Amino acid sequence: MIRYADDFIITGDSKELLCSKVKPLVEAFLAERGLVLSSEKTHVTHLRQGFDFLGQNVRRYPNGKLLIKPSRNSIARLLTETKKIVREHLGMAASLLIMRPNP
């Protein structure tokens, strides 16, 4: 299990194990605490298909390597924000412009 704040990943040997045994256990654990498992955010997928988690894409490739890299959405959002900042501050000295996104 990997968790960050209220987001978490649970891995298992098979989809059947995760759906029939693990998911009900997690739902029961959360119910005792007055919480519910979000159906919109809950996905059961194979590592070969990959998934996005906290702005990162996690995927196991056919050669057996597991790669965790920034997701396409995160990269696109960063580029959009950077373009916006640069366009709003045309003519500003480069040293000052570099400090704008992350002061």
Describe this structure as you would to a colleague.
With 103 residues, this protein is α+β, with helices and mostly antiparallel strands. The protein is 40% helix and 18% strand. It contains three helices and five strands. The longest helix is centred in the N-terminal third of the chain and has 18 residues, at 15-32. The model has no long low-confidence stretch (mean pLDDT 89).
Strands, helices and their partners?
Elements lengths: L1 E3 L2 E3 L5 H18 L18 E3 L2 E5 L5 E5 L1 H17 L5 H6 L4
Antiparallel strand pairs: 1-2, 3-4, 4-5
Regions with pLDDT < 50 over 5+ consecutive residues? none
Q: Kindly state the mean pLDDT as a whole number? A: 89
SS element count, helices: 3
Give me the strand/helix succession.
EEHEEEHH
Q: Report helical residue fraction.
A: 25-40%
How many E-type strands? 5
Largest sheet: 3 strands, antiparallel
N-end to C-end Cα span: 35 Å
Strand order of the largest sheet: 3-4-5
Output the radius of gyration.
Answer: 20 Å
Structure class: alpha+beta
Q: What general form does the structure show?
A: elongated
Features:
single chain; 103 residues; alpha+beta; three-stranded antiparallel β-sheet; two-stranded antiparallel ribbon; 3 helices; 5 strands; elongated
